[in-house]
Structure formats: C-alpha cells, structure tokens
Amino acid sequence: MNAVLERAEPIRKIGRQALQHPAPAARAGRFVVGILAGVVAVQFMFHMALNEFLNGMSTGMLYGLIAIGIILIYKTNRIINFAAAAVGAVPAIFALLLDVQRHINYLLLLPIALIGGVLFGGLVDVLIMRRFAKSPRLITTVVTIGVAQGLAALGFFIPIWIGATAGKVSLVPTPWSDLVWKNGHGKPVLSGNQIAAILVTVAIAVGLALFLRYTRIGIALRASAENSDRASLLGIPVKRVQTAAWMLAGGLASMAIYFQSPLIGVPSNATLGFDALLYALAAAVVARMERIGVALAVGTFVGIIQFGVVSRTGSSSNVGAYMLVLILAALLLQRKAQARAMDAGTSSWDVVKNFRPIPAELRSLPEIQTAKYVLYALAAAAVFLAPILVGDNDMPKLIPIPLYGMVGVSLVVLTGWAGQISLGQFGFLGVSAAVTGNIVYSHNGDFFVAIFGGILAGVVAAIFIGLPAVRIQGLYLAVTTLAFGYTMQYYILNTHYWIGRHLLPS
What we know:
By secondary structure, this protein is mostly helical. The chain contains 22 helices and two strands. The protein has helices spanning 2-6, 12-18, 25-46, 50-77, 86-102, 110-127, 137-162, 192-214, 216-223, 228-233, 238-264, 273-286, 292-313, 319-333, 340-343, 360-363, 366-390, 400-417, 425-442, 447-469, 476-492, 498-503, and strands at residues 180-182, 188-191. Helix 5 packs parallel to helix 7, helix 8 (192-214) packs across helix 9 and helix 19 (425-442) runs antiparallel to helix 20.
C-alpha cells in the first residue's frame, strides 16, 4: 500500500489543504474572540458555578470529538453521518457495563472500547456503506440513519446480556473518581473525571492532527476528499481511505462515550439519543465540515451551553433551541463557498440521481399505456375500497393518510427536485397546526382564515429555516431541520414555556 501511496505524491500538497485550510491570523483571532464572547454571554445568562462550567467544558470537548468524526466522513464520502455516535457506542457501552456490573477495572476495559470502536467503524463501511458507493449522497445519508437505528437495536440488548437494568443511567467507577478538589466552602470545583476527559480529548486531537499531516494514509485521506475519481486515477486507494475514515470516526465516538460516561452516566441508547447527535452536528456545521480545531472548540462551547441550561432550568429539553440559533447564525455568517472540484464542475459526488422521462417515441406504446392505466386503476381501487374493507371502528385511522401523503409530496418537491433532505418536516406541520388551532379555538376565527394563517406560518418557518441552510453547498438543510424539529417538539410546542402557552390553543 505504501508503494501505491507514493505514486500519489503529486497531490500531497493538495491533500494537506483539503481537510483543514490554515486560517489567517486575523480569522483565527476573530474566532477566538467570538468563542470568548459567547462564553461570557452564556455565563451572564445562566450564572454557572465553576464546577458546572468545567463539567460542561469537559463534556463538550467530547462532543467535539464526535463532530470531528462527522467531518472526516463528510470530507471522504460527502455525506452527513447520522450514525457518527452509534458506530462507537456499542463497544463503549459494552465495556462500561462490564465496569459497572462486573466491577472490572476501568483502564483494563479501555482497549475494548478503543479497538471495538475502530472495528465497528470499519465493518459498517465494508459491509454496508460500500454497497451504496455509487448511490447519490442523499440516499447514502439516509442509509446512515438506518445504520444508527440498527446499532441502537443492538445496543438495547447489551445491558440485558450483561444483567444490567435497561434504560437506567449508571455512574461509572474510575480509578480517579475519588479525586475531587473543593473550594473554601466545601463545594466541588474540579474532579478527576473532568481532568481525564480534558486530557484525553487534547491528546486525541493532537494525535489526529499529526496523523493527518505526517502519515501517508492521513495525507491520502485528505487528498481524496475533494474528488475521489481523480484521486483514484493518481493511485490513491479511495475505498481503503474511506474505510480508514470510518475507522477513525468509530474510534473517536467510542473514546468520547467512554470518557464522557463517568461524567453523565452510561448511555441507555446506542445512538446517544437525539441530543448528543444534535450537539455534535451543530459543532460540525459551525466548522463548515472541514476545520477540526474549530469543531473541537465549538463542541466545548456547546457543552457549556448544555450545562448552563440544565443549571438554570433543571432540564435539557430546550437546549435544541439554542442549537438551532447557533446553526442558523453560523450559516448566515459563513460566506457562500464551495469546493474547487465542485466549482470546476468535476466533482464525482452527486446529491441526487437524475431520472430521465420516458422518451416521446415510447410513450405511445401499448405496454406503456397499459401500465399507466393499471396504476391509475389500482390507486382508485385503494381509495374506494379501503373504507369498505377497514370497517367502522378503524375508519378514523384512515383520516391521517392523505395528510401524511401531503407531507410526502412536500418531501418529493424538496428532496426529489431540489436535492435537499429535511428531517424536521413534521416541525412545519406542527407550527401550522398550532397557529390554525389557536385562531379557531382561542380567537373563534373563521375556518378559512385559520387555514390561511396556518399555511402562512408554515411558509414563514420554512423560509426562516431554509434560506440560511441553502446558502452553502451540501446537505446542511438536514442538520438545520433536525434542530428545528427538536426545537418544535420540546420547546415551541411545549406549554411549560412562554411561547408554547401563547401559541398552542387553550
């Protein structure tokens, strides 16, 4: 493999710039000032104690590691990896539960998490993702959601096999759990688990930077990021490089979970739930899916926001609203740009597959006409026979079907025609329904006025979410709508908060 990589020397210099462009001093300075200003603003809003601040910092740095894994997969596969946490969660949870249930030493179990995360990442690529190597990036992105759900199902049975209580968050004993530094009032300030998380994150980040810059496979990984076909012609083993990226992502996720669990408990879900994935994706989006240092810093900032919200409200349900604001602000402030290969029209990545219509010469053939009328007849039969076959008791269950069909049509327009993926489509449905219901029930409004108001609310929400996301090349709308859906469910359509009480019908 070394001999093959040596033939790729002409793009070594390009490879060193493909993943992380060295920022000018002014840009780096502005970023540091922005992070510090954000930290000050968070502290001003939430008045966090020093221990809470350090807890958020150490936890957020581990979110940054997962964000780096997302960036690696995005640069080499041009997909947003929604299984970024899940690929390393299964071995990490297995090792952690051995510590909690069987009382095996935490450090002795570390190789299980590290090697297992790397192996799981490689197996996911070889067994699943390679089957979709020629598929559009949109399809491959959706496949990662299925991978995450499959690994979640596997992770569900791990506590059962070991004898732990499913769904119970367990504290992880570590060799440094008893190391706690307190202030003059006897309150904890810094713990050994926090120090371990910070030191491990820094060590992994430095090691990864050296690996990408000075090793042949690291240089090849960055060189193949912009155009896989061109890299393959120059001798880069693209498939092996992509597998290496998945292995790195799995190892990063596993280490993040393994060292985060002593702080917040063993995850009960191999996907880490909706929250952790959203936090890592927010850090990756702010880093424009390319700067690993920025992703690590923003992940740290996200962790501080999370613990700030928890310290003030006692719940993390509305952290997603802060993530939505952070993502939208980042997309609005980033200048519109695209990769050199895409700008030249030579990129080998396709977002969606283009389907050509049936040629005019074939449309009049009897086979084509017969197939068309048969499909129309089947659709009509389903509409008219369904009420007869279902029965009176189950008849109300048919009412939402056309509504779901309308949502499906909206996805056809957005995904099939525009090449964008939305993971929060029911969020737009929710805000429209809330406004319509409020006009009817709270203000006794006219039916058609209420319908128009609900439609207008959905349109405004779609513009508010969509415009920032489509300014930049890629699948950023998927991340934005994911945050939007989370915000709608847990914050906006929640009567515990001011906006929910005033938006939802009384």
